[in-house]
């Protein structure tokens, strides 16, 4: 999400100006199906694209350094140890992404695309609810200091999550407390060995695992729900 920065200093205009033709600041966020925002990364200049922001995202840095909660699941007898995120075509073929199939052929692939596109709209809905509840996030920010509107955005996201939990109307079984505590916990031990770091780094960017995961999801969804 791009938040327009009305008071951006002139000397920074080019760095913060994006396709919106105005200076903006980027919010990267991830939400579950009940619209609870469990990850946010705010403050990147608007001139960056999704890939540039991804390269700076703390969530994948934490994953590479082994600071995230363990994940294990099996699809079609293939075991996976990292969670995956739904993404569009611009993102790279990492084992942590399941991307949209641009021109799906066959009933199975078309079914996967329909389900994936439906689930990806949860993020758009989360942004929409955030905008409607806190009008300040919808209009251009009128502060000079970046730290000030970073606090504003963080406060709005926290209050948004409080409302989601308090209402409880969309409780779909997500363990938000576990997710948050697992992600923000700080390790005071030794830094992981370089070998382990590079090994995890390569696993995240493994194209073969990315392709295998997508094929497994196609088969799994079709077997479970394709006849509905």
Question: How would you describe this protein?
Answer:
With 228 residues, this protein is α+β, with helices and mostly antiparallel strands. The strands form three sheets. The protein has a three-stranded antiparallel sheet with strand order 1-2-3. A two-stranded antiparallel ribbon has the order 4-5. Strand 2 and strand 3 form a beta hairpin.
Shape: globular
Helicity range:
40-55%
Number of helices: 8
Average of pLDDT? 79
Alpha-beta classification: alpha+beta
| Order of adjacent strands in the largest pleated sheet | 1-2-3
Summary tags:
single chain; three-stranded antiparallel beta sheet; 7 strands; 228 residues; alpha+beta; globular
What layout of secondary structure does this protein have?
Layout: E1 2-4, H1 13-16, E2 24-31, E3 37-45, H2 50-56, H3 58-64, E4 73-75, E5 78-80, E6 85-87, E7 97-99, H4 107-133, H5 146-167, H6 176-184, H7 194-204, H8 207-225
Parallel strand pairs: 6-7
Antiparallel strand pairs: 1-2, 2-3, 4-5
Helix pairs in contact: 4-8
